[in-house]
Amino acid sequence: MEGNLVDVLAKIYVTLKESVLDPQGAAVSHALHALRYDTVSDVRIGKYMEVTLSAGSEQEAHQLVRGMCDQLLTNPVIEKYTYELVEA
Amino acid sequence: MEGNLVDVLAKIYVTLKESVLDPQGAAVSHALHALRYDTVSDVRIGKYMEVTLSAGSEQEAHQLVRGMCDQLLTNPVIEKYTYELVEA
């Protein structure tokens, strides 16, 4: 049957670029040290998103996810992202 | 040499429990539909954290990371988490 859709789950990991200061991460690191987690040397906080979608093919799913990330889900000036597609 | 430390990077994924409403996810889903991503059926937003730490052993690293998650990094009432340890 032409055009049967594939349902996919996109797992998207958004993190700040290395050059960008992460005050939230610094605050969490400070709090962890206060809780005696002295061996913590760095904390970076980002976003984890799960998007369920259907697409005509796996290739189209990749295009859709990259489009969403570039257009809405990430701020390309300060953030970078990786993602993986799994069957929904 | 007794007591040499292992440096690890903990990748922590925090998501809302299924039973918990995700207004942020609903808002993003709505925005994606407005951008013509009509095949999106669900969006869940969570936190992605990278914590760099050293530990006496891999086992100790697991204990430390679980401790941090339970004590500070997650809210066990509404959130669940998974993590993976990789060499820093």
UniProtKB/TrEMBL annotation, chains A, B:
Classification via InterPro entries: PurS, PurS-like_sf
Catalytic activity entry: N(2)-formyl-N(1)-(5-phospho-beta-D-ribosyl)glycinamide + L-glutamine + ATP + H2O = 2-formamido-N(1)-(5-O-phospho-beta-D-ribosyl)acetamidine + L-glutamate + ADP + phosphate + H(+)
Annotated GO biological process: 'de novo' IMP biosynthetic process
Keywords: ATP-binding, Cytoplasm, Ligase, Nucleotide-binding, Purine biosynthesis
Pfam families documented for this protein: PurS
MF terms (GO), sorted A to Z: ATP binding; phosphoribosylformylglycinamidine synthase activity
Pathway the protein acts in: Purine metabolism; IMP biosynthesis via de novo pathway; 5-amino-1-(5-phospho-D-ribosyl)imidazole from N(2)-formyl-N(1)-(5-phospho-D-ribosyl)glycinamide: step 1/2
Keyword ATP-binding tagged: yes
EC numbers, comma separated: 6.3.5.3
Subcellular location(s) of the protein: Cytoplasm
Gene3D superfamilies assigned to the protein according to its UniProt record, in alphabetical order: Phosphoribosylformylglycinamidine synthase subunit PurS
Broadest EC class assigned to this enzyme: ligase
GO CC aspect terms: cytoplasm
Main subcellular location: cytoplasm
Family: Belongs to the PurS family.
UniProt subunit comment: Part of the FGAM synthase complex composed of 1 PurL, 1 PurQ and 2 PurS subunits.
Function: Part of the phosphoribosylformylglycinamidine synthase complex involved in the purines biosynthetic pathway. Catalyzes the ATP-dependent conversion of formylglycinamide ribonucleotide (FGAR) and glutamine to yield formylglycinamidine ribonucleotide (FGAM) and glutamate. The FGAM synthase complex is composed of three subunits. PurQ produces an ammonia molecule by converting glutamine to glutamate. PurL transfers the ammonia molecule to FGAR to form FGAM in an ATP-dependent manner.
Cross-referenced PANTHER family: PHOSPHORIBOSYLFORMYLGLYCINAMIDINE SYNTHASE SUBUNIT PURS (PTHR34696)
The protein, known as: Phosphoribosylformylglycinamidine synthase subunit PurS
Gene: purS
